[in-house]
Design goal:
Layout: H1 13-36, H2 40-52, E1 55-56, H3 57-64, H4 68-80, E2 84-88, E3 96-100, H5 102-123, H6 130-149
Antiparallel strand pairs: 1-3, 2-3
Length: about 150
């Protein structure tokens, strides 16, 4: 006779967070993939440049918490689509500054509007104040994971 394990995977916070993230991301993923052929890292790079303007790939990787290899590949894909351009830093030729092209800016504006609408739809069934609490808790958990990993 085998002992029944009483561990409930569906209540395990890392599992639950992952399930929620996948469910929340899926609809938006279909949009940026169908409209622009982008992958997850591509839209994250696009949004960092759309929000912050000129940045380096290293800065984007640090802010997005994405490995430099994935960022480099996303930059290459976005450059091939003419959504961004690289410019050598005159003070340090090892550094490339990235900026959105007019096509990249248009894609960003389009997806920004979609993202706002998509998020509003995700939060529609929450009670007043729950979205703010959810954001605060998720930020706290994300910061804790950075401290404990590094």
């Amino acid at each position: 006779m085998t002992k029944k394990d009483d561990f409930d995977l569906h209540l395990f916070l890392p599992y639950l967070l992952n399930q929620a993230a996948e469910a929340a991301s899926y609809g938006f993923q279909r949009i940026y993939k169908d409209r622009y052929g982008m992958l997850r890292t591509d839209w994250r790079v696009l949004f960092h440049l759309g929000i912050h303007g000129r940045m380096t790939a290293r800065d984007i990787g640090r802010m997005a918490r994405v490995h430099k290899t994935k960022i480099s590949r996303a930059v290459a894909r976005l450059e091939a689509r003419r959504f961004l351009q690289r410019e050598e830093d005159p003070a340090d030729r090892r550094i490339e500054n990235l900026t959105l092209t007019p096509a990249g800016q248009a894609a960003y504006r389009d997806l920004h509007a979609v993202a706002e609408s998509y998020e509003a739809d995700l939060l529609r069934d929450l009670a007043p104040g729950e979205a703010e609490v959810l954001r605060k808790v998720l930020h706290r958990l994300a910061e804790r994971s950075v401290v404990t990993r590094g």
